[in-house]
Design goal:
6-stranded parallel barrel; mainly beta; 6 helices; binds 2-acetamido-2-deoxy-beta-D-glucopyranose; 4-stranded parallel sheet; Pectate Lyase C-like
Length: 472
């Protein structure tokens, strides 16, 4: 059925597009490619009425030919179905090189076949220069601009990027190199950024070697990030796995992340820009992650948190060879808050720190920040955690005159490495309590006996999303 529909559609396209890329959209060739992907299924928040393959628009999957135009044309063509059951663009088996492209249609799915690899161009000219994000300080001068994300979508409702573990390879090496040599005029592209959108699903993909952060949902709501494998060299910084940024109702589950930076970094804007933008990240669920992050955190909160971070629930996390588990990073000038953070059931092996909080993360967008804008950090819970081969259990430093309060640790069992730090809990400007922790905590966190830290028992709406099986 799908096949027949494609032929009709292909004929229509030949008429539509004239002879451009004619050889690529011949029926026989399209039919052949589609036969190899003729049956597949995936789970998504919604299935779509209309489909097209990248090959219908002149796509060539040889790993060398640029498919930038094919992606842009396909997406432009499919936009007409936005209010008629929606559409999906299928990326068939092959290696599809492309420059940056935008998802411009609501009710849209980008589907990658399991043997599809989208290769991000390494040519800076393939990335338009766009303004910096408003909550980070932007548009005032050139250095506040950035290269557009590789896959970018803004002002959309119901957008899905999924595959049966197909691959998007950011091919970041030249970007990392130029960045370290300070040869770039603008910020490096994120791999996938979805902005000002509602109902977003990014799932069942392998993401490799992003030039910068991998998955960046920003100013969005109802965001699902599920079953991703994210891999970057552990030596490269800024390759954060997933960065929910000023987003509400987010669920991140079953992802495997190896990164030179944080596996997940929860953010909400930077200093005076984030304070003015006032858009928090809240109601975030993080579950069943595996993280390897030798230089950074499994879950970082901040350092850009000026719009506030609230109601984060992280559970059933495995960390291997990571710098810290849950890490709070902030500083005077940030303003905002980090509150109601709940983490439980972490299993960790080889950690530099387990718990880390710093109120002295001094990096600012410019000199315009207000040093009197102090962040509020309160109600932070960590429970049911085990870690082996740990160098230092907890390095907790609040801000002088702005203590972090209601900090709780319960049922925490830490086995130290052969060469541990002498001081295992170093606490300054923090207020809270502990219950059944070993090694024993600092005097600022007295042992309250058997009194477990709280973890919310209510269910968030993002947990009630129903998936449909879309078959073709
Ligand atoms: C995505 O991958 C997970 C883990 O392999 C699997 O359980 C789930 O069914 C997949 N979803 C699909 C194929 O849509
Ligand atoms: C997307 O589909 C829904 C459900 O059919 C429809 O209500 C909505 O108007 C569509 N969105 C757009 C932008 O057409
Ligand atoms: C994508 O959209 C952004 C903002 O809407 C725009 O600046 C950029 O040029 C677009 N990119 C492409 C490849 O059209
Ligand atoms: C341009 O931006 C940079 C970095 O934010 C800042 O240091 C510099 O002062 C700005 N220059 C002007 C003229 O605004
Ligand atoms: C996108 O949404 C934002 C926030 O609602 C709005 O300010 C902006 O104008 C919208 N952009 C477009 C291109 O519609
Ligand atoms: C997806 O592919 C990656 C990379 O090849 C692999 O490590 C991972 O196990 C695969 N995931 C699934 C669910 O098949
Ligand atoms: C323990 O951690 C150290 C680094 O602190 C590492 O070199 C060593 O391989 C780890 N040992 C085990 C058994 O994982
Ligand atoms: C303490 O944490 C461990 C590891 O998560 C768990 O197996 C155990 O049931 C917890 N004990 C209590 C009393 O909750
Ligand atoms: C404890 O933390 C304080 C404040 O961050 C720092 O100045 C001090 O050097 C730390 N002490 C140890 C033993 O790590």
């Amino acid at each position: 059925m799908f096949w027949c529909f494609q032929i009709i559609r292909t004929v229509a396209l030949i008429v539509l597009l004239g002879l451009v890329g004619f050889r690529e959209v011949k029926c026989s060739r399209t039919g052949k490619v589609l036969e190899s992907v003729s049956s597949f299924s995936y789970e998504a928040i919604n299935c779509r009425k209309h489909s097209a393959s990248l090959t219908d628009f002149g796509g060539v999957g040889d790993g060398k030919t640029s498919n930038t135009i094919a992606f842009r044309k396909a997406i432009e063509y499919l936009k007409q179905f936005e209010s008629d059951g929606g559409s999906q663009l299928i990326v068939p088996p092959g290696k599809w090189l492309s420059g940056s492209f935008n998802l411009t249609s609501s009710n849209f799915t980008l589907f990658l076949h399991k043997d599809a690899i989208i290769l991000a161009s390494q040519d800076e000219g393939d990335y338009p220069v766009i303004p910096q994000l408003p909550s980070y300080g932007g548009g005032r001068n050139l250095s506040d601009s950035r290269y557009a994300p590789f896959i970018f979508g803004t002002n959309l409702t119901d957008v899905v990027i999924t595959g049966n573990n197909g691959t998007i390879d950011g091919q970041g090496a030249p970007w990392w190199d130029k960045f370290s040599k300070k040869e770039l005029n603008y910020g490096r592209p994120f791999l996938i950024e979805i902005m000002y959108s509602d109902q977003v699903q990014i799932s069942n993909l392998t993401l490799l070697n992003s030039p910068n952060w991998f998955v960046h949902p920003v100013y969005s709501s109802n965001v699902l990030v599920l079953s991703l494998t994210i891999l970057a060299p552990v030596t490269v910084s800024n390759t954060d796995g997933i960065d929910p940024d000023s987003c509400t109702n987010v669920r991140i589950e079953d992802c495997y992340v190896v990164s030179g930076d944080d596996c997940i970094a929860v953010k909400s804007g930077w200093d005076e820009y984030g304070i003015n933008f006032r858009m928090p990240t809240r109601h975030l669920i993080i579950r069943r992650m595996t993280c390897i992050s030798p230089k950074s955190a499994v879950i970082a909160l901040g350092s850009e948190m000026s719009g506030g971070i609230e109601d984060v629930r992280a559970e059933d996390i495995v960390a291997i060879n990571s710098e810290s588990a849950v890490s709070i990073k902030t500083a005077p000038g940030r303003g905002g808050y980090v509150k109601d953070i709940f983490a439980r059931r972490f299993e960790m092996n080889t950690m530099k720190y387990v718990f880390r909080m710093t109120g002295a993360y001094r990096s600012h967008p410019d000199q315009g920040f207000d040093p009197k804008a102090l962040p509020v950090v309160t109600r932070i819970s960590n429970s049911d955690m085990v870690a082996k081969n740990v160098t230092m259990t907890a390095d907790l430093a609040g801000i002088d005159g702005d203590s972090f309060t209601d900090i709780c640790f319960s049922n925490v069992t830490i086995e130290l490495s052969p060469k541990p730090k002498e001081v295992q809990w170093n606490c300054t400007d923090v207020v809270g309590l502990t219950s059944v922790v070993s090694p024993p905590a600092c005097s600022l966190l007295p042992d309250e006996g058997k009194n477990p830290c709280p973890f919310p028992s209510d269910k968030l709406p993002i947990d009630d999303i129903q998936f449909q099986t879309c078959s073709y």
